[in-house]
Backbone:
């Protein structure tokens, strides 16, 4: 398991760091980039599209942010994504770094870039939907090379039992596919909803769990209406266009005190999974999942890790929502 580390700028004195940070944040485009990267990992072409900036100019802005230690890159095979850097507490300019990020978080993204960011998410979602529509029939053979449910079922079931979900609970599983988990949930809880945006994958779910207490919905998570006691994201987050937005939407769909149960891959570099399994993200660092959940108002309850298999490791997390009232739909 790879843990995300603070980003350290080497070879710069404290006064130079101060100047670099102020200079990097003192530009409108770079300020907006920091704003949009609050919970996003984006490629340079996606950032160009969002802000209507030519690639050479955007690359120049990103280089300044990178050299100042405000952003860092994550390489996944031939893909390079930009995201906010974690400040090193030992950096003499740590407080300034954190203040700049806090200030960026208080700024609302302008309407046009916000619409373009939503368009990037929709395009990612369309690509994922097209992949699963085309490859649903043979997908289980490829996914078995990574991890089948049986490989981490003990971890998952332990986390589920520890969450003490009532038998009468209303449960939502997002992207169940042909995993046997949906049938397990249907046997243990009063009412289960299965959501998928690809009709062939939803058909596989129907074959797996045809119980009378399972309801099937074809659609997107961000358009779903309702509220649930337990929401399950089982090996689906790495297909989502924006993992942070997906967790936020789940939080908005939970009843007060409800539970989000999440199983997904730890960070890896097995790039064949993109083409073979339609994976958009090569796993996640636990710290990122925790940060996204915390930002969504969720409280971490447990974390566990299944044994490594074929170079992949599955992490299982439970989060609860402490909100007093539950909205009846996800935030769009």
Residues:
């Amino acid at each position: 398991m790879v843990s995300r580390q603070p980003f350290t700028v080497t070879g710069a004195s404290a006064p130079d760091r101060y100047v670099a940070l102020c200079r990097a944040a003192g530009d409108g485009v770079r300020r907006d980039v920091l704003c949009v990267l609050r919970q996003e990992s984006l490629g340079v072409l996606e950032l160009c599209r969002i802000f209507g900036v030519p690639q050479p100019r955007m690359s120049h802005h990103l280089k300044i942010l990178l050299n100042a230690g405000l952003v860092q890159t994550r390489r996944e095979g031939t893909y390079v994504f930009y995201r906010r850097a974690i400040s090193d507490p030992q950096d003499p300019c740590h407080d300034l770094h954190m203040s700049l990020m806090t200030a960026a978080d208080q700024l609302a993204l302008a309407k046009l870039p916000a619409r373009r960011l939503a368009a990037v998410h929709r395009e990612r979602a369309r690509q994922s939907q097209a992949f699963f529509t085309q490859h649903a029939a043979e997908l289980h053979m490829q996914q078995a090379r990574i991890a089948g449910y049986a490989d981490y079922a003990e971890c998952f079931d332990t986390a589920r039992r520890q969450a003490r979900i009532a038998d009468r609970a209303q449960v939502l599983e997002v992207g169940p596919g042909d995993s046997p988990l949906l049938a397990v949930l249907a046997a243990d809880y009063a009412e289960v909803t299965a959501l998928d945006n690809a009709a062939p994958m939803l058909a596989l779910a129907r074959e797996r769990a045809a119980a009378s207490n399972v309801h099937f919905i074809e659609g997107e998570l961000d358009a779903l209406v309702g509220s649930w006691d337990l929401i399950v994201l089982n090996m689906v987050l790495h297909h989502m266009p924006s993992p942070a937005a997906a967790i936020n939407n789940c939080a908005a769909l939970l009843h007060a005190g409800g539970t989000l149960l999440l199983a997904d891959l730890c960070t890896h570099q097995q790039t064949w999974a993109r083409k073979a399994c339609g994976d958009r993200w090569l796993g996640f660092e636990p710290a990122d999942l925790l940060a996204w959940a915390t930002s969504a108002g969720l409280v971490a309850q447990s974390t566990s890790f299944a044994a490594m298999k074929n170079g992949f490791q599955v992490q299982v997390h439970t989060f609860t929502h402490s909100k007093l009232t539950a909205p009846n739909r996800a935030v769009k």
In short: The mean pLDDT is 91. The domain at 14-109 is CATH 1.10.10.10 (Arc Repressor Mutant, subunit A). The CA atoms of residues 36 and 109 lie 7 Å apart. Residues 111-135 form the longest helix (25 residues).
